[in-house]
């Protein structure tokens, strides 16, 4: 009935779409909508088109993506008709370009200028938006799009006394159209982000005195402005379409070479050469990708940071000023780096002075100047270059009310929540162009805007073609995307900085990472996939019903996905197609170049007696003074491959994190020595290690058994046997993605049979080489079938995308049912192998930290000396 009533109440809106904003995004969207046959109206607060480039008219304002790339690429004709004059165009030229675009496609006729959208509300009965403007008009539309920009709402200066100043006050982001003449004036600039760094050298050229009030020094490199870079121009001329396409599938929306070189391991001369050439290139996308790991590894980042500081010291003559201008409180790239023209040299001028607010903070602004903790400054003009309420300011700045009157501001009180940065549940047919959760500010805006506009226009056309009226993300899809956005940021250095990317510049703003750092390419692939999979994670409704393919578009940890992609590209043979000897050789080659894991106090090899000959072991000792608890560790490899050194990174990690001696023992492998040879060897190793704990530097009654995969199977098996035989006494068992049963019939086997390195086929191969079918159900092969009472406390680790996940969970549950204390660590987004990839899969680190802490909790506190 209700549905019927709703259907009857559905109304025809005045226009199909309302678009707010007439910058790059709004203009292109209006053009695309018209092309696709939709009616649309645009509203713009300013008196003309231009967006950012309308407002930010401060001296020195330029783009900082080369104009070869900071330009619309959707229409080759448009590109033929416009030629940029410089590598980085000035604000007036970019504004002229946008005016040219508006004229060329006759877009102004759809835009109402000098008009703000104050409120927009979704009418669920009528299935449309009502949009109220500052001009008193109410327009109804089926879809409401905010193309309001990411950096469009200036931040309040929040400085005591700001209203008292009687001189001239200017905001870089609201600069007077007629310009400002500072000749003969004493000028203060507050803020040294991109706007400050671009404007300071030019203000210094006019002002009689210039005082720069700096709270945080910023990394900046010279723009080397001039003609557009020949290499880019040549590439573009040679094949425009290919160039644009490569931008669309690049990381930052600008074509460029990705490197695999890591900062710390690159030889000094190569490092230097790469850094110098990035300096010479004067392009943000080059200096931010000198090393593959500079965004994730503090040591690699420091190499780039120190190189830039060295350049600052070389330019700025006063060492104290040079040091004050040298950023040391954030990693390079975690606050937006800048491009400048003569910024640092400006501080050599006699009439320019830097005030370091970290040493002497502003206490108040007075009627005639600025007081700091150390001094009073009399000035004629204050320029605020203090930034924006970024990413969400413009979106929540309009009173947008979705279903049941819930406002966007309420929904996003703890931080933005979006699906693909485009839409948010509870707000049907509401789109944000380059919204939070999309690459936006971390990319070339022109490319990201085109991608969003194309997606939205394509989506509206699809709805029309299917006779659907509304589209809205599901809660599941949105939560999944938010998690993915956070996962991508978590493996970088970004969350450590007080940046506007983190909302840290606006008091009280939720501290999350606002943009999507998975790359323009990765983002485009996800957005395309959503559409191709029948609008995965969206609910579509129309007069004749609804459609919903619910789901999450990216569930793997981002770095796990990268490793899997790289492996897929290598075209490796199916592992189960290789005879064991060849498989072992192959794995050795794969392991040869991997990082070894963290430093530990000592690594040494030894042998211990096994039932059929010596067994090699490798011992990892922490750097702290011993003795330590001992973890007897069994390596993974399906009882067929691997040895006492094959899990070295994981063993080092365990040793360093938990402050334990790890003894990794080899055992005999199938098919040469089949079941129960490995289990017998493991048992012999346990007894020997228990008997020799003191010699090994261990504490005798602090012994834990551990293992990964088949090695975890052996650990579980020897724990059961130790109970049967009355010792050795164990403090715990650490089972990492264990094999606990031979049935291979769980849901996780079906779901993850293919594609995650350990496949169902590989597991079958391992069982076949290890154990006769008749013996596989014995508890010494399938510990899940054993008696589980009176076993030592267990830590069971399972990975989401692992065929063995469910048998690990089953073991944890069965242990618990038998009264054994169990800690279950479920590694979200991980595969069977990814947790062992220390220093490669960075998202594994927090999981291993949790495992390390839980292991430590099984052991007595280390004795303090
Ligand atoms: O703003 P910002 P912006 N007391 O937030 C300081 C893009 N953009 O307008 O870092 C004293 O970066 C603040 O100090 P701190 C670009 O993406 C592009 O410069 O918070 N100081 C900081 O130094 C850029 O990142 C171009 O400690 C105060 C400065 O003000 C983004 O826009 C050009 C303060 C603000 O820097 C924003 O840049 C311009 C206070 N109360 C901008 N409050 C291009 O080239 C703030 N600060 C395309």
Automatic annotation (TrEMBL):
<dbReference type="Pfam" id="PF07859">
    <property type="entry name" value="Abhydrolase_3"/>
</dbReference>
<dbReference type="GO" id="GO:0016709">
    <property type="term" value="F:oxidoreductase activity, acting on paired donors, with incorporation or reduction of molecular oxygen, NAD(P)H as one donor, and incorporation of one atom of oxygen"/>
</dbReference>
<keyword id="KW-0560">Oxidoreductase</keyword>
<keyword id="KW-0503">Monooxygenase</keyword>
<dbReference type="InterPro" id="IPR013094">
    <property type="entry name" value="AB_hydrolase_3"/>
</dbReference>
<dbReference type="InterPro" id="IPR029058">
    <property type="entry name" value="AB_hydrolase_fold"/>
</dbReference>
<feature type="domain" description="Alpha/beta hydrolase fold-3">
    <location>
        <begin position="631"/>
        <end position="833"/>
    </location>
</feature>
<keyword id="KW-0285">Flavoprotein</keyword>
<dbReference type="InterPro" id="IPR036188">
    <property type="entry name" value="FAD/NAD-bd_sf"/>
</dbReference>
<keyword id="KW-0274">FAD</keyword>
<keyword id="KW-0521">NADP</keyword>
<dbReference type="Pfam" id="PF13738">
    <property type="entry name" value="Pyr_redox_3"/>
</dbReference>
<dbReference type="InterPro" id="IPR050775">
    <property type="entry name" value="FAD-binding_Monooxygenases"/>
</dbReference>
<comment type="similarity">
    <text>Belongs to the FAD-binding monooxygenase family.</text>
</comment>
<dbReference type="GO" id="GO:0016787">
    <property type="term" value="F:hydrolase activity"/>
</dbReference>
<protein>
    <submittedName>
        <fullName>Predicted flavoprotein CzcO associated with the cation diffusion facilitator CzcD</fullName>
    </submittedName>
</protein>
């Amino acid at each position: 009935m209700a549905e019927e009533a709703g259907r009857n109440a559905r109304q025809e809106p005045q226009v199909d779409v309302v678009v707010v904003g007439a910058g790059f995004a709004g203009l292109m969207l209006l053009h695309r909508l018209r092309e696709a046959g939709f009616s649309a109206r645009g509203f713009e607060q300013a008196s003309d088109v231009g967006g950012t480039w309308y407002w930010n008219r401060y001296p020195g304002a330029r783009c900082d993506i080369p104009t070869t790339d900071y330009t619309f690429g959707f229409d080759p004709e448009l590109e033929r008709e416009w030629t940029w004059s410089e590598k980085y165009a000035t604000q007036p030229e970019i504004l002229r370009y946008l005016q040219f675009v508006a004229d060329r496609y006759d877009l102004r006729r759809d835009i109402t200028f000098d008009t703000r959208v104050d409120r927009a509300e979704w009418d669920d009965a009528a299935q449309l938006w009502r949009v109220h403007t500052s001009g008193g008009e109410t327009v109804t539309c089926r879809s409401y799009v905010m193309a309001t920009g990411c950096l469009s709402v200036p931040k309040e200066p929040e400085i005591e006394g700001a209203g008292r100043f009687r001189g001239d006050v200017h905001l870089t982001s609201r600069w007077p159209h007629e310009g400002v003449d500072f000749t003969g004036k004493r000028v203060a600039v507050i803020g040294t982000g991109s706007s400050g760094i671009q404007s300071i050298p030019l203000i210094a050229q006019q002002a009689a005195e210039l005082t720069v009030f700096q709270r945080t020094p910023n990394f900046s490199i010279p723009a080397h402005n001039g003609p557009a870079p020949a290499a880019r121009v040549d590439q573009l001329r040679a094949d425009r379409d290919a160039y644009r396409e490569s931008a669309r599938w690049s990381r930052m929306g600008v074509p460029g070479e990705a490197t695999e070189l890591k900062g710390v391991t690159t030889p000094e001369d190569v490092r230097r050469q790469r850094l110098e050439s990035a300096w010479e290139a004067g392009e943000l996308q080059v200096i931010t990708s000198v090393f593959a790991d500079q965004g994730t590894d503090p040591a690699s980042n420091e190499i780039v940071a120190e190189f830039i500081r060295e350049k600052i010291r070389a330019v700025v003559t006063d060492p104290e000023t040079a040091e004050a201008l040298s950023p040391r409180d954030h990693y390079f790239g975690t606050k937006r780096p800048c491009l400048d023209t003569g910024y640092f040299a400006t501080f050599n001028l006699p009439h320019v002075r830097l005030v370091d607010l970290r040493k002497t903070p502003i206490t108040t602004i007075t009627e005639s100047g600025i007081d700091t903790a150390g001094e009073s400054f009399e000035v004629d003009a204050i320029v605020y270059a203090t930034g924006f309420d970024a990413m969400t300011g413009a979106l929540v700045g309009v009173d947008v009310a979705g279903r049941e009157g819930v406002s966007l501001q309420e929904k996003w009180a703890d931080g933005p929540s979006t699906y693909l940065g485009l839409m948010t549940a509870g707000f049907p047919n509401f789109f944000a162009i380059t919204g939070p959760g999309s690459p936006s500010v971390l990319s070339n805006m022109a490319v990201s805007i085109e991608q969003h506009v194309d997606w939205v226009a394509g989506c509206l056309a699809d709805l029309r073609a299917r006779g659907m009226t509304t589209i809205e993300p599901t809660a599941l899809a949105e939560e999944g995307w938010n998690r993915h956005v956070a996962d991508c940021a978590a493996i970088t250095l970004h969350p450590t900085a007080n940046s506007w990317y983190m909302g840290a510049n606006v008091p009280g703003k939720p501290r999350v990472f606002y943009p999507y750092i998975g790359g323009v390419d990765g983002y485009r692939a996800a957005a395309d996939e959503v559409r191709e999979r029948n609008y995965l994670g969206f609910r579509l409704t129309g007069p004749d019903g609804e459609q919903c393919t619910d789901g999450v578009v990216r569930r793997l940890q981002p770095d796990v996905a990268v490793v899997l992609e790289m492996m897929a590209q290598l075209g490796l043979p199916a592992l189960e197609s290789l005879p064991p000897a060849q498989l072992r050789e192959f794995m050795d080659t794969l392991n040869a170049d991997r990082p070894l894991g963290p430093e530990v106090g000592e690594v040494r090899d030894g042998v211990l007696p096994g039932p059929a000959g010596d067994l090699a072991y490798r011992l990892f000792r922490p750097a702290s003074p011993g003795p330590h608890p001992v973890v007897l560790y069994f390596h993974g490899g399906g009882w067929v491959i691997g040895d006492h050194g094959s899990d070295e990174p994981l063993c080092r990690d365990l040793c360093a994190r938990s402050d334990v001696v790890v003894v990794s023992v080899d055992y005999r492998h199938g098919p040469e020595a089949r079941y129960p040879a490995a289990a017998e060897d493991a048992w012999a190793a346990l007894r020997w290690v228990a008997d020799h704990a003191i010699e090994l530097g261990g504490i005798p009654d602090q012994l834990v058994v551990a293992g990964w995969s088949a090695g975890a199977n052996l650990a579980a098996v020897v724990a059961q046997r130790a109970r049967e035989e009355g010792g050795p006494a164990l403090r715990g068992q650490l089972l990492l993605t264990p094999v606990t049963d031979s049935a291979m019939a769980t849901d996780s086997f079906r779901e993850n049979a293919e594609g995650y390195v350990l496949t169902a086929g590989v597991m079958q191969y391992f069982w076949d080489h290890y154990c006769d079918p008749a013996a596989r159900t014995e508890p010494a092969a399938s510990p899940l079938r054993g008696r589980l009472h009176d076993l030592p406390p267990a830590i069971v680790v399972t990975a989401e995308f692992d065929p063995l996940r469910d048998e690990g969970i089953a073991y944890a549950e069965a242990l618990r049912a038998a009264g054994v204390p169990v800690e279950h660590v479920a590694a979200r987004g991980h595969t069977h192998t990814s947790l062992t990839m220390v220093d490669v899969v960075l998202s594994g680190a927090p999981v291993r930290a949790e495992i390390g802490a839980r292991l430590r909790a099984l052991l007595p506190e280390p004795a303090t000396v």
